[in-house]
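Sequence design from tokenized structure. All designs in this work follow the same two-part layout: the structure record, then the generated sequence. An example of the structure record is given first.
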């Protein structure tokens, strides 16, 4: 497994991360035993970056990871935790809390659920419009000084917020959606991060399965996040699946899968970009790991660009209400 620094100030992480969200119901039911087996398989393959959020299954995901890590050395896993999203008992999304007191309370509960005495990378899941980012990052910085957190990350914020956060404390990485069909960060965000020495942990590299080569229409049940995603609806999904068909030809010519091409493309955009794959099963994890052996030539990259040009995707990456909460989509430079 290749190991890379996460930004100039962050920890040493595997070239591929495991996103654990889907193990806690965001995409419909998940098999607990298979989820734990998948985390074990990832660790055995040399993946050390495990990404979670305290609001994934209302704590379920952190408890699952804690169970999976029993018997392993603490430093075998780099735990990246998002906090701050507020949810009601019916699992509805009801806002975001980035106040300093909320930061410390969320951290206390995450440490307890995960069964650890520090978290490697701690990050607000979104920008709280009612709290200056300096206050949120300042509170996390206090927890770094106290030894409860090793590094600070950001998620889904734009260039101005990134600069303001970095002025308070070094930022290891920005977690943000980046894939062949979600390339918004190339506009201003990626350049800002590179200027400041901030790494990128790219989630949604398969666009929630859409460009995995495994997605089939009408596969999402009502409990599946994708049932409400614009890219998976109506004519949009037909157009997007045509892009997948175009990728299929390139993948077949290389003797690899569509998913492997899509992951390899993200990895090829720079050593400072770590793709995070949301594998819930060992077979999907194994396929993702195979992408690390796919080295794309200039010709390959040109062919992929022709098959899936920038901006080719139909539909936004989130529903309108969620897009409105994304500082990364606010258009700041």
């Amino acid at each position: 497994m290749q190991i890379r620094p996460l930004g100039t100030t962050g920890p040493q992480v595997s070239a591929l991360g495991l996103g654990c969200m889907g193990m806690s119901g965001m995409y419909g039911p998940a098999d607990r035993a298979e989820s734990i087996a998948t985390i074990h398989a990832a660790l055995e393959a040399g993946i050390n970056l495990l990404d979670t959020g305290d609001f994934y299954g209302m704590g379920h995901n952190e408890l699952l990871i804690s169970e999976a890590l029993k018997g392993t050395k603490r430093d075998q896993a780099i735990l990246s935790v998002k906090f701050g999203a507020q949810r009601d008992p019916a699992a509805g999304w009801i806002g975001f809390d980035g106040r300093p007191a909320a930061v410390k309370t969320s951290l206390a509960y995450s440490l307890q659920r995960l069964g650890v005495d520090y978290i490697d990378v701690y990050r607000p899941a979104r920008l709280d419009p009612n709290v200056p980012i300096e206050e949120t990052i300042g509170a996390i910085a206090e927890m770094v000084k106290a030894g409860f957190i090793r590094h600070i990350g950001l998620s889904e914020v734009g260039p101005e917020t990134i600069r303001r956060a970095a002025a308070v404390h070094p930022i290891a990485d920005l977690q943000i959606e980046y894939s062949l069909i979600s390339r918004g960060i190339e506009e201003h965000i990626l350049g800002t991060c590179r200027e400041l020495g901030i790494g990128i942990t790219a989630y949604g590299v398969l666009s929630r399965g859409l460009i995995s080569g495994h997605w089939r229409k009408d596969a999402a049940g009502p409990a599946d996040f994708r049932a409400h995603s614009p890219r998976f609806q109506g004519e949009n999904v037909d157009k997007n699946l045509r892009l997948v068909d175009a990728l299929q030809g390139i993948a077949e010519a290389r003797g690899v899968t569509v998913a492997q091409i899509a992951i390899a493309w993200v990895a090829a955009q720079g050593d400072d970009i770590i793709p995070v794959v949301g594998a819930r099963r060992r077979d999907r994890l194994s396929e993702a790991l195979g992408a690390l052996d796919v080295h794309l030539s200039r010709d390959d990259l040109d062919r992929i660009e022709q098959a899936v040009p920038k901006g080719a995707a139909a539909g936004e990456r989130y529903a309108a209400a969620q897009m409105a909460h994304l500082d990364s989509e606010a258009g700041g430079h």
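The domain at 3-329 is CATH 3.20.20.100 (TIM Barrel). We note this feature because it recurs in several other targets discussed in the main text.
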